[in-house]
Amino acid sequence: MGPASFIPEQVVAQHASRESCWIIVHNKVYDITDFLDEHPGGSKIILRYAGKDATAAYEPIHPPDMISSNLPPEKHIGIAEPSASKRPKTAEEKKRELTLALRPPLDEMLNLHDFEAVAKGVLTEKAWAYYSSAAEEEFSLRENRAAYQRVWFLPRILRDVTSIDPSTTILGQKSSLPIYISATALGKLGHPDGELNLTRAAAKYGVIQMIPTLASCSFDEIVDASQPNQSLFLQLYVSRDREVTKKYVQHAEKRGVKALFITVDAPQLGRREKDMRMKFVDDGAGAKVQEGQSGIKKDQGIARAISSFIDPSLAWKDIPWFRSITSMPIILKGVASPQDAIMALEAGVQGIVLSNHGGRQLDNSRSGLENLVDIVAALKTRGPWPNPKFSVFIDGGVRRASDALKALALGASAVGVGRGFLYAFSAYGQDGVEKAIEILRDEFEMNMRLLGCRTLGELSPDMVDASALRTHAGLVPQDSLYAATYQPLRLAQSKDSKL
Ligand SMILES: Cc1cc2nc3c(=O)[nH]c(=O)nc-3n(C[C@H](O)[C@H](O)[C@H](O)COP(=O)(O)O)c2cc1C
């Protein structure tokens, strides 16, 4: 490319409509007008960046070479004039850099809440809003933590607890802890290496990672970063185009993924208002021009913008089709009722995750922990328990080994952790995830010793008192560590706010 292919920012800015849409990604200018309607995330999201540098928005969501390898060469218009990308740092960027430099040393992290506090400082406002937000009043988000405070231990004594082993198998795969890394989308919003931070740390510590459909890194990048004996699971959002889903699932199986977690609680993405509000802030005046031309709504937030491909027609009748395209164990992620748990068992899947999606979907849904008690009782009426062919997992609000031990005592096979690891790598990259796993491992060892359990097999329902689990109203002690980082909705900033 000769010097003539340098394109000034002002020229790119003139192509900011559906009729002519140019964007800058990694300093290159692309004409994506003809591609707008083919974009899996919809054209609206691209039009937000029409005529502008879209790198920051593109990067967390797409594999690096996606645009350059998918657009025909004649649509690679040229190189953005340096002034287009070398804008001065915003006040938020400067503040973030400073906070990153002033992070406490990793050794000062004593629990998973500490990572959340650091992440809150170092994440961009948009990333924090996307990661921390939950649906509507965020009742379910808070309940996920509160439920654990209503279950108490009844430890056993004098059992020679010299050596403790918290290892287990999850869906036939070895795991050093009864915890797996649950799928959380868009890892690069938190750290340039995104999900690879999790993959590498999980390999080192023998923990299983669930790869999200909406990962920032490509599926293959993640698998390529894994070690030969490392077990990976796959989280699936089912596409309206079943051929796309089939290809994706079969590719994953070929690459050695060990289980398929189909997300069943997200036929539409929940209304996460912090996330929606942040989008409004960032669009600023520029969005007004585009809005007139394309009908963009400014209130979608990241989550909704990227999820338009998800098929809301997914139903029980589709389960045999999934069975026909893969021999991986199939687990339904996002089950809440005993009726559905029994239907899942009868449908022949290998397990369920009792989850309210970290409070991000249907607000006011009960916690997985509370549902666990009813669901285990229901499953006991349908055959042997524990059932070696049907695993019950739970997630939501797990931040301590003690949380996991309570869930296991009540019948869970293992528990998923989402935000805990997400915040760990947002704050400290791979080192953060490693430290988080070490903290959990130490917590398991101590809690199991004090409970009188040498192995997880020795945990039993009579080691917990769950009689208060159904008590919801105001009787729970304040969790001040968690409350210190919880961000009330009213403090979320809107564009004109001076808060
Ligand atoms: C930022 C974020 C993104 C998530 N993305 C997905 C996703 O793409 N697919 C999915 O099935 N669950 C997703 N989840 C839900 C998690 O898998 C898990 O159910 C939840 O985070 C557990 O709650 P916790 O964050 O309190 O541990 C996401 C959660 C968060 C916080």
As a percent range, the share of helical residues equals 25-40%
The largest sheet is:
8 strands, parallel, barrel
Total count of strands: 16
Number of helices: 21
Instruction: Tell me the CATH topology of the largest domain.
Output: TIM Barrel
Ligand list: flavin mononucleotide
Integer count of domains: 2
Q: Which class best fits the helix and strand makeup?
A: alpha/beta
Full CATH superfamily name of the largest domain: Aldolase class I
Can you give a write-up of this model?
The chain folds into 2 domains: 83 residues, Cytochrome b5-like heme/steroid binding domain (Flavocytochrome B2, Chain A, domain 1); 341 residues, Aldolase class I (TIM Barrel). It is 39% helix and 12% strand. The chain has 21 helices and 16 strands. Helix 8 runs antiparallel to helix 13 and helix 17 crosses helix 18. The longest helix is centred in the last third of the chain and has 33 residues. 46% of the residues are buried. About 4% of the residues have low confidence. The structure holds flavin mononucleotide. Flavin mononucleotide (FMN) binds next to helix 8, strand 15 and helix 20.
Lay out the secondary structure.
Layout: E1 6-7, H1 9-13, E2 22-25, E3 28-31, H2 43-47, H3 55-58, H4 66-70, E4 76-80, H5 82-85, H6 91-101, H7 112-122, H8 125-132, H9 139-148, E5 152-153, E6 168-170, E7 173-175, E8 179-181, H10 196-205, E9 208-211, H11 219-225, E10 232-236, H12 242-254, E11 259-263, H13 273-283, H14 286-294, H15 301-306, H16 319-325, E12 330-335, H17 338-347, E13 351-354, H18 368-380, E14 391-395, H19 401-409, E15 414-417, H20 419-451, E16 464-465, H21 480-485
Parallel strand pairs: 1-4, 8-9, 8-15, 9-10, 10-11, 11-12, 12-13, 13-14, 14-15
Antiparallel strand pairs: 2-3, 3-4, 5-16, 6-7
Helix pairs in contact: 7-20, 8-13, 10-20, 17-18
Flavin mononucleotide (FMN) is lined by residues 130-131, 144, 182-185, 212, 214, 235, 263, 333, 355, 357-358, 360, 395-398, 416-420, 422.
